[in-house]
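Tokens as discussed.
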């Protein structure tokens, strides 16, 4: 089997899986989605027949599957030409799986499979490049049989569903066929052909059509121990079909079809996760307006209390001055809790790990930020207390209180000198009036200056209130910015999800281009052996194994 043309595709799918794994890792790590939200996406490598062999080229793995007593073990013995699997009338007869393997196949048993319940027999028949498995029944009271079958199913390429004329309408095995119809290639054997009639074959085919097998390969087999009594049957065709299947790269096509189905399933799941991310991202925009509303209400509620604390602080600052390590905000526990509650409430309403994380990181910063703004406001206010007009007037008056007496004293002195030279004596009245006018000219600006001087307490009070206002506004913006950060990260991850949906979807839709070996067409049988996909095919075995006929 030449795998060269297939390997790059498998490798590409491995890269896609890796990319997906990294994306999912980031979603959970960054809190964009919870672990339970991504749980449905199974990115672990699925077991396959490749795991049974230690070589790049391996035999086709074919198993007999069906209810008890239909003749699965008899068919394997018939193929082997010797009694390698136990057959009998006791129900169920087989309580173990018998593997009939090519001796050169480098077989290995993957971990998780029960060694004690698996019997291996090697054959040297070179014309059988096939590993045969006789599975125990699926429908007897022996529940461990059914468990063993389910453990082995993922390792099988072709399942041969064996029925007998009286058992082909049994529901238990049918239920599994229905669940697994997409996961393997199927052949059908109506064993006990000696007891059957042609109508039953047609009826059986009709039932298979309902599962999407439009042209199923149903082989008639009479496997009675007395081979001389056997009716002519299709047993010879069984080996031939499988050899053809192996020769025409059926295994490769099957593996690729399985990968494609898995990609399709993943595409749907990634698209669903991406949609969730987009919804969450849109939800954050709504949260921003909710936050503004919540914070406004909180600030309105704490403001009267904080105004009272600000007045007390201002009084202390006026009396003692502002020391470097003194905290100007007199928080009480209720106010602190109320402010932090707004943040906690938003986190609760958001109910998103990424937002909760961002808000929790800001929780310790919130009060400190308001305190920082109050200190700043206070320092600015104390540096320039009062209104600017008030400050300028006070400055002008403080100059006038010296300037006016000096000017008037100069004028009085000038009159005195003038009188002396004119020999006119000014007398006591002049002296009294001059002294009075000089005094009043200094006193009035001095008193006005005192009156206009800005109060330190008022300045501190105003500074604290201004700082609180700035602090609240700062908190509001900071939380909005944090929400915006989460929103844009969610949108980024959603975009990556959209791209991955495209990449994985493209891989799922790509046809497998195999060059036909030795001029032969790629397996024409495969289409008949696979059930047509009906919408979203499931590769996993569900918990419900019961089937039902239409
Ligand atoms: N008449 C008739 N009897 C058959 C045929 N094939 C098998 N038998 C008999 O059916 C009985 C059951 O066959 P097994 O091969 O043990 O059946 P099985 O499907 O392996 O049953 P479990 O191991 O219980 O799951 C045996 O007695 C076989 O001899 C057949 O084509 N015709
Ligand atoms: Mg058996």
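Sequence:
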């Amino acid at each position: 089997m030449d795998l060269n043309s297939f390997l790059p595709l498998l490798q590409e799918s491995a890269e896609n899986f890796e990319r997906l794994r990294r994306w999912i890792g980031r979603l959970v790590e960054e809190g964009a989605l919870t672990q339970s939200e991504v749980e449905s996406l199974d990115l672990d490598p699925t077991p396959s027949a490749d795991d049974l062999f230690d070589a790049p080229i391996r035999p086709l793995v074919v198993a007999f599957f069906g209810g008890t007593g239909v003749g699965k073990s008899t068919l394997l013995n018939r193929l082997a030409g010797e009694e390698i699997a136990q057959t009998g009338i006791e129900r169920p007869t087989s309580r173990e799986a018998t593997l009939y393997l090519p001796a050169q196949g480098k077989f290995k048993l993957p971990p998780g499979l029960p060694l004690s319940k698996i019997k291996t027999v090697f054959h040297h028949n070179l014309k059988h490049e096939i590993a045969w498995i006789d599975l125990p029944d699926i429908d007897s009271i022996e529940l461990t049989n059914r468990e063993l079958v389910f453990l082995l199913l993922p390792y099988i390429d072709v399942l041969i569903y064996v029925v007998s004329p009286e058992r082909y309408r049994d529901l238990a095995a049918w239920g599994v066929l229905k669940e697994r119809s997409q996961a393997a290639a199927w052949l059908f054997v109506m064993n006990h052909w000696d007891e059957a009639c042609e109508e039953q074959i047609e009826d059986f085919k009709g039932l298979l059509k309902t599962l999407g097998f439009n042209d199923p390969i149903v082989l008639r087999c009479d496997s009675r121990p007395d081979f001389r009594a056997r009716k002519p049957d299709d047993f010879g065709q069984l080996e031939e079909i499988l050899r053809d299947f192996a020769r025409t790269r059926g295994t490769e096509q099957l593996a690729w079809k399985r990968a494609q189905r898995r990609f399709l399933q993943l595409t749907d799941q990634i698209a669903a996760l991406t949609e969730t991310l987009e919804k969450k991202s849109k939800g954050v925009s709504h949260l921003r307006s909710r936050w503004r509303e919540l914070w406004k209400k909180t600030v309105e509620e704490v403001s009267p209390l904080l105004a009272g604390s600000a007045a007390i602080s201002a009084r202390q600052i006026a009396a003692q001055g502002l020391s470097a390590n003194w905290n100007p905000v007199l928080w009480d526990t209720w106010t602190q809790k109320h402010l932090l509650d707004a943040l906690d409430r938003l986190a609760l309403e958001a109910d998103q790990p990424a937002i909760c994380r961002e808000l929790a990181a800001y929780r310790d910063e919130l009060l400190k930020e308001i305190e920082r703004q109050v200190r700043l406001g206070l320092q600015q206010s104390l540096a320039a207390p009062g209104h600017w007009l008030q400050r300028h007037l006070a400055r002008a008056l403080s100059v006038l209180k010296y300037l006016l007496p000096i000017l008037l004293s100069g004028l009085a002195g000038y009159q005195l000198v003038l009188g002396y030279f004119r020999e006119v004596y000014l007398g006591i009245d002049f002296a009294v009036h001059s002294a009075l006018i000089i005094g009043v000219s200094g006193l009035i600006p001095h008193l006005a200056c005192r009156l206009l001087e800005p109060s330190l307490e008022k300045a501190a009070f105003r500074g604290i209130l201004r700082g609180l206002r700035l602090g609240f506004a700062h908190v509001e913006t900071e939380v909005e910015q944090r929400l915006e950060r989460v929103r844009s990260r969610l949108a980024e991850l959603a975009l990556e999800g959209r791209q991955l949906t495209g990449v994985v979807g493209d891989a799922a839709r790509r046809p497998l281009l195999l060059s036909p070996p030795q001029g032969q067409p790629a397996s024409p049988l495969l289409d008949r052996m696979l059930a047509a996909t009906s919408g979203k095919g499931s590769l996993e075995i569900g918990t419900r194994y019961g089937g039902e006929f239409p």
